TrEMBL record:
Compartment(s) where it occurs, according to its Swiss-Prot or TrEMBL record: Peroxisome membrane
SUPFAM superfamilies registered for this protein in UniProt: RING/U-box (SSF57850)
Topology versus the membrane: Multi-pass membrane protein
Name listed for the protein in its UniProt record: Peroxisome assembly protein 12
Subunit composition and interactions: Component of the PEX2-PEX10-PEX12 retrotranslocation channel, composed of PEX2, PEX10 and PEX12.
Signal peptide as annotated in the record: none
Function of the molecule: Component of a retrotranslocation channel required for peroxisome organization by mediating export of the PEX5 receptor from peroxisomes to the cytosol, thereby promoting PEX5 recycling.
GO biological process assignments: protein import into peroxisome matrix, receptor recycling; protein monoubiquitination
Species name: Bifiguratus adelaidae
Length: 386
């Protein structure tokens, strides 16, 4: 085990690959843990944060990571695992046992800004690109069902004379992005894997390509680093100063105490999130659900009534006489029937274009949350007539 724990580490200075992957996984688990907390606590007041969670999380981590990089010389997760960042051109100091890096100073502003770009901004951009690709490609459903309808619709729009040049250019760019992005996604992750393999076998001192781009490497903290951190842990109130000076320094002390508390709060939130994840997938939760279901049946609770049908709105289009007719194009039978969350069924092409343009149900005039992602195809069993 001692051999395995030192794989990829260059003596006592460089951490093992397993330490680096562990701190990276900790950062990945932090986002869903915070999202769970905001989704469960005070949803009425935190709805704006929940709707813009990616931007909120990026701004929060920008502040947290900036503080840790300037104060401790490493990111939050790196500091939790006793790691720090140093410039790659720092000189070596020869000792009786091994050659180690010279005592580190605080990272320069350039190194801090570059590290923030790699730690916060780059993952945020990658996440937004993933969401956009999932939205325009159909997500996992596109792997199960034929996507010829989407391509045919886009080609028809490109041939249409009513579509403006700007809209046609947008469609072409969307098609190019949908074609190129999977390869870019593959290259992004494959480059990280190759650097990790190279770091594991001692071929490079960077465990991911972005550290090489910003010319920074990750090393272990030494005893002097811990002493320096303890001595400069932040401004403290002193009885030797005047009352006004102590009042003026109080906000700095509170801010420092807040960031120090994050060293405990954030890891604990991750552990709590993983515990809940295990609990809801365990036999205990399933057993509790079975018992609750049994008690419900014993109490002979009545069947919950189906929701009321949404009536057509005067601002919407009128309903045809036959339920097999599309309310938009009046085609009968409905071609490729697709249901909206309001319960009304249309042709897929008609529903897609209408919701994409207006964002509402054509009949009830209710807003369709999620836009075109709220469309659901209706599959009719052969021979049933339903």
């Amino acid at each position: 085990m001692e051999f395995m724990s030192n794989l990829g580490g260059d003596g006592v200075d460089h951490p093992s690959l397993f330490e680096l992957i562990a701190q990276a996984k900790m950062t990945e688990m932090l986002s869903p843990a915070l999202r769970y907390v905001y989704a469960q606590r005070y949803p009425r007041y935190l709805i704006r944060i929940s709707n813009n969670y990616d931007e909120f999380y990026a701004a929060l981590m920008l502040l947290v990571e900036r503080h840790y990089l300037k104060q401790w010389g490493g990111s939050f997760a790196e500091n939790f695992y006793g790691l720090k960042r140093v410039p790659s051109d720092r000189p070596l100091v020869q000792s009786s046992s091994t050659a180690t890096k010279a005592p580190s100073q605080n990272l320069s502003s350039t190194n801090v800004n570059r590290s923030l770009a790699v730690l916060v901004i780059l993952p945020y951009i990658k996440q937004r690109l993933d969401h956009y690709y999932s939205r325009i490609s159909g997500g996992g459903a596109s792997q199960l069902f034929d996507s010829n309808e989407r391509d045919e619709r886009e080609l028809a729009e490109l041939r249409s004379a009513t579509i403006s040049l700007r809209q046609k250019a947008r469609i072409r760019l969307r098609r190019i992005f949908r074609l190129v992005y999977p390869w870019a996604h593959f290259a992004y992750h494959m480059s990280e894997v190759l650097f990790q393999i190279g770091y594991l076998f001692g071929k490079t001192k960077y465990w991911n390509p972005w550290l090489k781009v910003i010319d920074v490497e990750v090393v272990r903290m030494n005893a002097q680093d811990y002493r320096n951190q303890f001595d400069s842990s932040g401004p403290k109130l002193s009885t030797s100063t005047s009352l006004m000076d102590r009042v003026a320094r109080t906000p700095l002390v509170l801010v420092q105490a807040f960031f120090n508390a994050l060293r405990v709060i954030l890891p604990m939130s991750i552990f709590f999130f993983k515990f809940l994840e295990w609990w809801y997938s365990s036999e205990f939760a399933r057993g509790s659900g079975t018992a609750l279901k049994k008690r419900t049946n014993d109490d002979d609770v009545g069947v919950i009534a189906s929701p009321k049908r949404l009536a057509p709105d005067l601002r919407g289009i009128p309903l045809p006489k036959s339920p097999d007719t599309c309310p938009i194009c009046l085609r009968s039978p409905i071609d490729n029937p697709t249901a909206l969350p309001t319960g009304y069924v249309f042709c897929y092409t008609c529903a897609y274009k209408y919701v994409e343009e207006h964002g509402r149900c054509p009949v009830t005039w209710e807003k369709v949350n999620g836009g075109i992602e709220g469309l659901r195809k209706v599959y009719i069993a052969v021979g049933t007539g339903r």
